[in-house]
Amino acid sequence: MKLDLKIQPLSSWITAKAQPLLIAGPCSAETEDQLVATAHLLAATGKVTALRAGIWKPRTRPGEFEGIGSIGLEWLKRAKAETGLPTAVEVATAKHVEEALKAGVDILWVGARSTANPFTVQEIADALKGSDVPVMVKNPVNPDISLWIGALERINNAGITKLAAIHRGFSSYEKTAFRNEPMWDLAINLKTHAPELPIICDPSHISGNRELIPYVSQKALDMDMQGLMIESHIDPSVAWTDAKQQVTPSALSELIDRLTLRQPEVVNTQVKDALAELRNKIDKIDDLVIQKLAERMKIVEQIGNYKKDNGITILQVNRWDEILQKRSNYGKALNLHADFTEKLLELIHSESIRKQTEIMNAGQGEAPVQEQLTHS
Ligand code: PEP
Ligand code: MN
């Protein structure tokens, strides 16, 4: 399903100073000196396109630093006047929007906690009516692409056409190395719904620590995202918020230098031909995989009917354990990552169970397709 968004190209509202497009600045504006000095160092790298700073901070728990508030707008004005960098702030209420627009902030963004709440998004959208300020919409905290799309639509319906999405990762129950799971497939899914919508990656909030930022940044560029938003503080060790994930302007500059920029379009015809041949091979294998899966499902149906006729339960744990064990070992021997083989088998198995449930309970309503299969 293609989304009906009216969007102006990124280049119509932001001109990258260098590649990749980079929005940088502290998580929070803390003092006038901290913000202005950070802005000067960032501008001096020659790599930063816009200065970000949170002045109203949505905090999970009360009592934490909730942002310096409107006074920060004056500091941003000064930073812009002295460095020439356009400014970007997070807005979460109609009042924030009004104040930011009045103060001449160049770009607004909607934070992850706000995107998760349609009432908040609508309030922001209503306050934006009549303005043509660029707005970036972060993905919601929870991995729900509809909320992300809904927020983009609400802002777009308010007449904002200078629109971008920010991928900042998602909360997940499982604790992993990331602060927020990237779930790249969700960002890619958004891209397929709205190919003209620019997506900027926020490796800082995905990583949650400095060490992972280069890896996530490179991956974002390889996924053909249009730019990066990275938190940078003049002295991260004393930052009032997100201290572990902020980098100094000079560390940011080095990090950017180490990234590899690749072409989304292949220009060299020799490379193009070689790639086409390899893709051709992949297409044939994919067709075979699908065909074999369909064959497998036909057999699953036969088994389902057999179990039904003989009053046998659908799930036989031992059999499933055996499949998992044998195939994982086989996959390992063929150089497939154990995790990958397991996930693939689980997906196939859950569809097999769904099919058999349908057969066993014919006439009692259809079994829902497993969550993984509709995950979009
Ligand atoms: C931020 O950018 O500082 C921020 C609060 O991010 P998020 O909304 O992604 O949590
Ligand atoms: Mn932050």
Automatic annotation (TrEMBL):
GO molecular function terms noted in the UniProt entry: chorismate mutase activity; transferase activity
Manganese among keywords: no
SUPFAM superfamilies: Aldolase (SSF51569), Chorismate mutase II (SSF48600)
EC number(s) per entry: 5.4.99.5
PROSITE patterns noted in UniProt: CHORISMATE_MUT_2
Annotated ranges, domain Chorismate mutase: 269-360
Enzyme class: isomerase
Biological process annotations from GO: chorismate metabolic process
Signal sequence range: none
Keyword terms: Transferase
InterPro entries: Aldolase_TIM, Chorismate_II_sf, Class-I_DAHP_synthase, CM_dom_sf, CM_II_prokaryot, DAHP1/KDSA
Protein known as: chorismate mutase
Species this chain originates from: Mucilaginibacter aquatilis
